[in-house]
Design goal:
Layout lengths: L10 E4 L14 H4 L1 H4 L8 E3 L2 E6 L2 E6 L6 H12 L6 E7 L6 E6 L7 H10 L5 E6 L9 H4 L6 H21 L6 E4 L1
Parallel strand pairs: 1-4, 1-5, 5-7
Antiparallel strand pairs: 2-3, 3-4, 6-7, 6-8
Helix pairs in contact: 3-4
Amino acid sequence: MKRTGNQEIELIAFLGNPGTQYRRTRHNVGWMVIPELTAVPETAWKEKFHGRFVKDGNCVLLAPETYMNNSGRSVQAAAAFFGVSPAGILVVHDDMETPFRTVSLTRGGGHRGNNGVRSIAQALGSPDFWRLRLGVGRPPGGRRPGDWILERFTPDEEARLPELIAAAAEMIRDNAAKPEERVGGV
Protein backbone atom coordinates (compact mmCIF):
# COMPACT_ATOMS: atom_id res chain seq x y z
CA MET A 1 0.00 0.00 0.00
CA LYS A 2 1.65 3.19 -1.16
CA ARG A 3 0.60 6.52 0.30
CA THR A 4 1.35 9.99 -0.88
CA GLY A 5 3.11 12.45 1.40
CA ASN A 6 4.49 11.33 4.73
CA GLN A 7 3.22 7.90 5.63
CA GLU A 8 1.99 7.21 9.15
CA ILE A 9 4.44 5.29 11.33
CA GLU A 10 3.21 1.69 11.63
CA LEU A 11 6.27 0.00 13.14
CA ILE A 12 8.66 1.45 15.72
CA ALA A 13 11.86 -0.51 16.36
CA PHE A 14 13.79 0.35 19.52
CA LEU A 15 17.42 -0.75 19.18
CA GLY A 16 19.54 -2.22 21.95
CA ASN A 17 21.41 -5.31 23.08
CA PRO A 18 19.94 -8.08 25.23
CA GLY A 19 21.62 -8.96 28.52
CA THR A 20 21.98 -7.26 31.88
CA GLN A 21 25.55 -6.15 31.10
CA TYR A 22 24.17 -3.81 28.39
CA ARG A 23 21.03 -2.59 30.21
CA ARG A 24 22.16 0.99 31.04
CA THR A 25 24.77 1.49 28.29
CA ARG A 26 24.75 4.17 25.61
CA HIS A 27 23.97 1.53 22.96
CA ASN A 28 20.71 0.65 24.75
CA VAL A 29 19.26 4.14 24.98
CA GLY A 30 16.72 3.16 22.31
CA TRP A 31 15.27 0.48 24.58
CA MET A 32 15.14 2.99 27.46
CA VAL A 33 12.46 4.96 25.57
CA ILE A 34 9.93 2.09 25.60
CA PRO A 35 8.55 2.52 29.16
CA GLU A 36 8.37 6.29 28.68
CA LEU A 37 6.37 5.92 25.47
CA THR A 38 3.85 3.21 26.32
CA ALA A 39 1.91 2.03 29.33
CA VAL A 40 1.50 -1.45 27.83
CA PRO A 41 2.86 -3.80 30.53
CA GLU A 42 5.92 -5.88 29.80
CA THR A 43 3.84 -9.04 30.29
CA ALA A 44 1.75 -8.13 27.19
CA TRP A 45 4.78 -8.23 24.90
CA LYS A 46 5.12 -11.37 22.76
CA GLU A 47 8.25 -13.21 21.61
CA LYS A 48 8.44 -13.19 17.82
CA PHE A 49 10.48 -11.71 14.98
CA HIS A 50 13.75 -12.44 16.82
CA GLY A 51 12.66 -10.04 19.55
CA ARG A 52 9.68 -8.84 21.56
CA PHE A 53 6.72 -6.92 20.15
CA VAL A 54 3.35 -5.51 21.11
CA LYS A 55 0.61 -3.80 19.17
CA ASP A 56 -0.16 -0.40 20.74
CA GLY A 57 -3.09 1.20 18.93
CA ASN A 58 -2.33 1.25 15.21
CA CYS A 59 1.39 0.82 15.74
CA VAL A 60 3.62 -2.20 16.35
CA LEU A 61 6.39 -1.64 18.91
CA LEU A 62 9.41 -3.92 18.42
CA ALA A 63 12.48 -4.54 20.57
CA PRO A 64 14.87 -6.68 18.50
CA GLU A 65 16.88 -9.12 20.63
CA THR A 66 19.37 -10.05 17.91
CA TYR A 67 22.08 -7.77 19.28
CA MET A 68 22.53 -4.41 17.65
CA ASN A 69 24.56 -5.54 14.64
CA ASN A 70 21.81 -7.91 13.46
CA SER A 71 18.77 -5.69 14.12
CA GLY A 72 17.77 -5.88 10.46
CA ARG A 73 16.83 -9.54 10.83
CA SER A 74 14.17 -8.65 13.41
CA VAL A 75 12.90 -5.46 11.76
CA GLN A 76 12.62 -7.07 8.32
CA ALA A 77 10.68 -10.05 9.73
CA ALA A 78 8.19 -7.81 11.55
CA ALA A 79 7.82 -5.45 8.58
CA ALA A 80 7.14 -8.36 6.22
CA PHE A 81 4.60 -9.94 8.60
CA PHE A 82 2.65 -6.70 9.13
CA GLY A 83 3.08 -5.45 5.54
CA VAL A 84 4.92 -2.26 6.51
CA SER A 85 7.05 -0.48 3.92
CA PRO A 86 10.32 1.22 4.93
CA ALA A 87 8.55 4.62 4.87
CA GLY A 88 6.25 3.39 7.68
CA ILE A 89 9.12 2.32 9.97
CA LEU A 90 10.73 4.40 12.71
CA VAL A 91 14.01 3.17 14.22
CA VAL A 92 14.91 4.59 17.65
CA HIS A 93 18.67 4.37 18.27
CA ASP A 94 21.78 5.87 19.83
CA ASP A 95 23.84 8.21 17.68
CA MET A 96 27.41 9.31 18.40
CA GLU A 97 27.29 12.01 15.72
CA THR A 98 24.47 13.78 17.57
CA PRO A 99 25.41 15.75 20.70
CA PHE A 100 24.30 14.31 24.04
CA ARG A 101 20.72 15.28 25.01
CA THR A 102 19.73 16.03 21.41
CA VAL A 103 17.07 14.11 19.49
CA SER A 104 16.86 14.21 15.72
CA LEU A 105 14.08 12.81 13.54
CA THR A 106 15.15 12.20 9.95
CA ARG A 107 14.14 10.00 7.06
CA GLY A 108 16.65 8.08 5.00
CA GLY A 109 20.33 8.83 4.81
CA GLY A 110 23.37 6.93 5.97
CA HIS A 111 23.95 4.79 9.02
CA ARG A 112 26.49 7.21 10.56
CA GLY A 113 28.48 4.31 11.95
CA ASN A 114 25.55 2.63 13.73
CA ASN A 115 25.69 -1.05 12.78
CA GLY A 116 22.07 -1.61 13.80
CA VAL A 117 20.90 1.01 11.31
CA ARG A 118 23.26 -0.44 8.69
CA SER A 119 21.79 -3.92 9.27
CA ILE A 120 18.22 -2.64 8.94
CA ALA A 121 18.94 -0.80 5.67
CA GLN A 122 20.56 -3.95 4.26
CA ALA A 123 17.74 -6.26 5.39
CA LEU A 124 15.00 -3.94 4.07
CA GLY A 125 16.90 -3.28 0.86
CA SER A 126 16.35 0.43 1.44
CA PRO A 127 17.59 3.23 3.72
CA ASP A 128 14.23 5.01 3.29
CA PHE A 129 12.97 4.58 6.87
CA TRP A 130 12.65 7.09 9.70
CA ARG A 131 15.35 7.36 12.36
CA LEU A 132 15.00 8.94 15.77
CA ARG A 133 18.62 9.58 16.66
CA LEU A 134 19.24 9.89 20.38
CA GLY A 135 22.40 11.88 20.90
CA VAL A 136 25.01 10.20 23.04
CA GLY A 137 27.88 12.34 21.68
CA ARG A 138 31.39 11.38 20.65
CA PRO A 139 33.77 9.53 22.96
CA PRO A 140 36.24 11.74 24.80
CA GLY A 141 39.77 12.07 23.38
CA GLY A 142 41.39 8.86 22.27
CA ARG A 143 38.60 6.50 23.39
CA ARG A 144 37.59 3.79 20.93
CA PRO A 145 33.97 4.36 19.83
CA GLY A 146 33.17 0.62 19.91
CA ASP A 147 34.21 0.34 23.55
CA TRP A 148 32.74 3.65 24.67
CA ILE A 149 29.26 3.02 23.21
CA LEU A 150 29.02 -0.23 25.24
CA GLU A 151 29.83 1.53 28.53
CA ARG A 152 27.37 2.95 31.02
CA PHE A 153 26.64 6.66 31.01
CA THR A 154 28.72 8.84 33.32
CA PRO A 155 26.99 9.89 36.57
CA ASP A 156 26.37 13.39 35.13
CA GLU A 157 24.90 11.92 31.92
CA GLU A 158 22.85 9.42 33.93
CA ALA A 159 21.31 12.31 35.89
CA ARG A 160 20.29 14.03 32.63
CA LEU A 161 19.21 10.89 30.80
CA PRO A 162 15.52 11.13 31.83
CA GLU A 163 15.28 14.44 29.94
CA LEU A 164 16.62 12.82 26.75
CA ILE A 165 14.27 9.86 27.06
CA ALA A 166 11.25 12.09 27.74
CA ALA A 167 12.12 14.29 24.73
CA ALA A 168 12.41 11.20 22.51
CA ALA A 169 9.02 9.85 23.61
CA GLU A 170 7.42 13.24 23.05
CA MET A 171 8.91 13.51 19.56
CA ILE A 172 7.54 10.05 18.71
CA ARG A 173 4.05 10.92 19.99
CA ASP A 174 4.06 14.25 18.14
CA ASN A 175 5.21 12.74 14.83
CA ALA A 176 3.85 9.18 14.57
CA ALA A 177 0.76 10.17 12.57
CA LYS A 178 2.51 12.55 10.15
CA PRO A 179 6.29 12.51 10.62
CA GLU A 180 8.36 15.56 9.78
CA GLU A 181 12.09 15.99 10.04
CA ARG A 182 13.11 17.91 13.17
CA VAL A 183 15.80 18.34 15.80
CA GLY A 184 15.29 19.08 19.47
CA GLY A 185 17.40 19.39 22.57
CA VAL A 186 16.79 19.29 26.27
